[in-house]
Design a protein that fits this description.
Keywords: Amino-acid biosynthesis, Decarboxylase, Lyase, Lysine biosynthesis, Pyridoxal phosphate. 28% of the residues lie in helices and 25% in strands. It is of the alpha/beta class. Strands 4, 14, 15, 16, 17, 18, 19, 20 and 21 form a nine-stranded mixed β-sheet that branches. An eight-stranded parallel beta barrel has the order 5-6-7-8-9-11-12-13, surrounded by four helices. Strands 1-2-3 form a three-stranded antiparallel β-sheet. The N and C termini lie far apart (62 Å). The structure holds pyridoxal-5'-phosphate and lysine.
């Protein structure tokens, strides 16, 4: 069931007309459906639930809003975090420290120390010096840090180059060929409790085959590590499942992922972690915007909307496609470019696209904006930071305020030596 649907010719999120949110909160604004978040969380958990021992940690970089995180915490999700800031959010949202795992190639000593103090459940080590530093910090505190080694399986995930993470040339993980010797050295350190292996080969994967190749390589590595006498109790299989952005896009389901993972891992006898991000949040949110002008262009008009690349960076960053729909469609269509007000030629959301006809003042939405949307927003061009709204049934709450340029400016100052 889709929780963004038209009723009487206008788009609703659950039982709230989007026009009401636009009138009361203004635009641009992100709108999330709690029911969709809950459904996605349940469907993913049930899909991978065919594995005997499995934990789900939401990759909170996809959507770190506190309200959204609370919904997922209530669904039993832990968190995959990549910074001290994300850890603080996960804890504030009610996720238990033991259900938090810490990924990322550049964890600082300060972040590692804070995570040890918080008692998080798993450190995903990205290279040996990081493991040595963590071991020393933990030993000093009289602790033993639960850790897994992230390996780079050198598998082409078949996704956009900028969101591919499992190729040898990418910065993530250690070469799988070097993993056995490195694992042995790390396991020998006091202060580290080396429990297993982690991988994550990329995001927006539309095919399970690269994941299956990567999992298979991990299976071979586990056998090798066990043969060398290591106890392997945990494997983190990362995230990456894609979502449909365009009408007709077909993506593997969580159930298909679960079936494949159960088959490949059947003899592993370990706890399995998953770190889904986009598949949980992507289609649970839209970015609502108002048309400012329809400006004539050479081949087709530019629909200038009040959202811009600073609010939703994916189209300008990855040429990503986000479907545009009018909140109150007239039934007519037009061929147009859609652009924002930012002073960059690349501040476009769509070029040469057939869309619902819109005119100045009309509302529209960019779909599938719940993941890597608001979280990547900035205040470029001194625009406000975009607000976020969570809908549940016929209620809505503003879960992130619009931060005005003046508020951002209040944190800046002119040095006293300047006249
Ligand atoms: C280590 C790690 N885990 C999980 C994710 C979440 O990925 P996705 O949103 O594609 O599920 C990412 C982002 O690609 C990541 O880097
Ligand atoms: N920001 C990317 C995903 C990055 C995944 C993080 N490892 C996107 O919008 O598609």
């Amino acid at each position: 069931m889709n929780h963004f649907e038209y009723r009487d010719g206008r788009m609703f999120c659950e039982d709230v007309p989007l026009e009401k949110i636009a009138a009361e909160v203004g635009t641009p604004v992100y709108v999330y459906s709690q029911a969709t978040l809950e459904r996605h969380a349940r469907v993913f958990r049930e899909g991978v639930g065919v594995l005997p021992r499995v934990h789900c940690a939401f990759a909170i970089k996809a959507n770190p809003n506190l309200g959204v995180l609370r919904v997922l915490a209530n669904q039993g999700y832990g968190a995959d975090v990549v910074s001290g800031g994300e850890m603080v959010r996960a804890l504030a949202a009610g996720m238990k420290a033991k259900d938090i795992l810490f990924s990322g190639v550049g964890k600082t000593g300060e972040e590692l120390s804070a995570a040890l103090d918080a008692g998080i459940g798993q450190f995903n080590l990205e290279h040996e010096p990081e493991g040595i530093a963590l071991a020393a910090l933990a030993h000093e505190k009289g602790l033993s840090a639960p850790a897994v080694l992230r390996v780079n399986p050198d598998v082409d995930a078949g996704t956009h180059a900028k969101i591919s993470t499992g190729l040898a040339e990418n910065k993530f993980g250690v070469p799988i060929s070097e993993a056995p010797a490195m694992f042995a050295r790390l396991a020998a350190l006091p202060g580290l409790d080396m429990r297993g292996i982690a991988i994550h080969i990329g995001s927006q994967l539309s095919d399970l085959a690269p994941l299956e190749r990567a999992y298979t390589r991990v299976g071979e590595l586990i056998a090798e590590l066990r043969a060398a006498g290591h106890r392997i109790s945990r494997v983190d299989l990362g995230g990456g499942l894609g979502v449909p952005y365009r009408p007709g896009d077909e993506m593997p389901s969580p159930a298909a992922l679960g079936e494949m993972a159960a088959r490949v891992t059947k003899d592993w006898d370990v706890e399995i972690m998953f770190e889904p991000g986009r598949v949980i949040a992507g289609n649970a949110g839209v970015l609502m915007t108002r048309v400012i002008w329809v400006k004539p262009g050479i081949a087709r008009p530019y629909v200038i909307v009040d959202a811009a690349m600073n609010d939703l960076a994916r189209p300008s960053l990855y040429d990503a496609y986000h479907q545009f729909q009018a909140v109150r469609p007239s039934g007519e269509t037009m061929n147009a470019n859609i652009a924002g007000p930012v002073c960059e030629t690349g501040d476009t959301f769509a070029m040469d696209r057939d869309i619902d006809s819109v005119a100045s003042g009309d509302l529209g939405v960019f779909l599938t904006a719940g993941a890597y949307g608001a979280t990547m927003a900035s205040t470029y061009n001194s625009r406000s930071l975009v607000p976020e709204v969570l809908v549940s049934g016929d209620r809505y709450a503003i879960v992130a305020d619009r931060i005005q340029a003046a508020t951002v400016m209040a944190a800046e100052r002119v040095p006293e030596w300047l006249p």
